[in-house]
Specification:
mainly beta; seven-stranded antiparallel sheet
Length: about 120
Amino acid sequence: KMSFIVDRVGVGVYRAFEIQNDSMDDDSKRSIPAGAYVCGRELKQEHWKSKLRINQYQDWIIVHRDTVLCKQITAHDVEKGIITCHSLNDSPEYQDFEIHLDEVKQLFNIISVQSMR
């Protein structure tokens, strides 16, 4: 159980996640470094068929069939059901990639970050 400070509480399912790597760390204020905890609000699958609000919510937790990712979603092709994932860290191993939403179990938009730096 964790507590987070947020500007408002909306209706929905909230989960906390611990960040494990530095893919979202570019040494800026927007970084989500390894060891940070994030609070995410689940976006139900029925909303994935509409354009995701990626301008309002840039950072996401993506529960993929094989792993859990913390990424920015920079594009959403609604017709093909594909999202483009982006890391803040510009290191070559963190290049942008696409995921088919039929391989995704859950999406959470990140609403709060607690850095442990």
